[in-house]
Design a protein that fits this description.
Largest sheet of chain A: 6 strands, antiparallel
Oligomer: homodimer
Radius of gyration of chain A: 19 Å
Order of helices and strands of chain A: EEEEEHEEEEHEHH
Structural class of chain A: alpha+beta
Number of strands of chain A: 10
Distance between the termini of chain A: 25 Å
Helix content of chain A: 10-25%
Shape of chain A: globular
Strand content of chain A: 35-45%
DNA sequence: CCCTTTTCACCTAGGTGGTAAGAT
DNA sequence: ATCTTACCACCTAGGTGAAAAGGG
């Protein structure tokens, strides 16, 4: 996923141990289609696929560790392939999703561990909503990605880019 | 370090949490020199540098997790540079070292945590001994590395390799 | 017609020993 | 003379969108 979801975390107990997850969930109940300049709903969504949350590679870590830096989920991957490796989010193309961040405190006491809900908080960010595609539908998105992703440098400062800019 | 130190671990409590470390420590008290075909001691060692053990990236993990696979320390690095990043082993060139594996069980009970020695075991492997160098002294070592390290493929099946083989 | 898959050139990022120059 | 440093070509490994081919 690019650009990656990046969060800063505050308010943790510095010495407690936490696991941090990112989840990708349906943002609405429709299938979408890109028409001219905007996405429009074209019908009901496919049956939602259940994906386990992606655990951040730094997990588990202390509250102090999580709060010290920007937590980036750059390694999280999405796919439309049923045979994809574990750890990727299996999504429906042309469907709208958004991301959640889950922060779960690890209890050392076994009794406390049984009531897990009390120590887990979920944060949903509407601004992360996106439509999954197999090919870009909007040249402005393509340009945004090429401009900002280091791995797309080959497509910057090129004739293609100049033409796209001119066509804006 | 190549070839990497690789270990298999047995006898852990599958559900307990462990941290696994590799340490690099002096193997003797001498400075060495390569003469014709063998390393010989040439005098007393430099003052030993203290390096913290390298924690395996999978740490912490359950006993079941550690025992399921080969534990490889391929990412561990050695250096002779004082300004090197944290996490590298700072060694004296022309000195002999060997590696240790440290397995430490994490106690949830705070009282047990205070007497850490009881739950930490160290394993020293004489067969991992090596002399740190800034340039290879022995063509057989060079050949061994080129033959087995994927990143040295450029030097395989080449004129250089043929010449070295002939000179054996 | 619309969406998906495959292959590609072109990057980032970083691990090899060789080689020549530098340092003591 | 001996050891060290800096730079290099050449790899592994994998993340980009473009373009052409495939599928329903």
């Amino acid at each position: 996923m690019f650009p990656p979801v990046m969060v800063t975390i505050t308010g943790l107990d510095p010495s407690a141990i936490y696991r941090v997850y990112m989840d990708v969930v349906p943002a609405d109940g429709y299938r979408h289609k890109f028409t001219k300049t905007a996405w429009v709903a074209t019908g009901p969504a496919e049956f939602s696929i259940s994906n386990p949350p992606y655990e951040h590679p730094n997990s588990p870590a202390s509250g102090a560790g999580w709060m010290g830096t920007v937590v980036s989920f750059a390694k999280a991957k999405i796919t439309n392939n049923n045979d994809s490796v574990e750890g990727n989010f299996l999504l429906h193309s042309m469907h709208k999703y958004q991301t959640k961040i889950i922060i779960s405190r690890q209890e050392t006491d076994k009794k406390a561990r049984s009531c897990l809900g009390d120590h887990t908080h979920t944060f949903q960010f509407e601004e992360t909503a996106f439509v999954a595609v197999t090919a870009y539908q909007n040249h402005r998105v393509t340009r945004l990605k090429i401009k900002n992703n280091p791995f797309a440098k080959a497509f910057r400062d090129s004739d293609v880019m100049a033409i796209l800019e001119g066509a804006r």
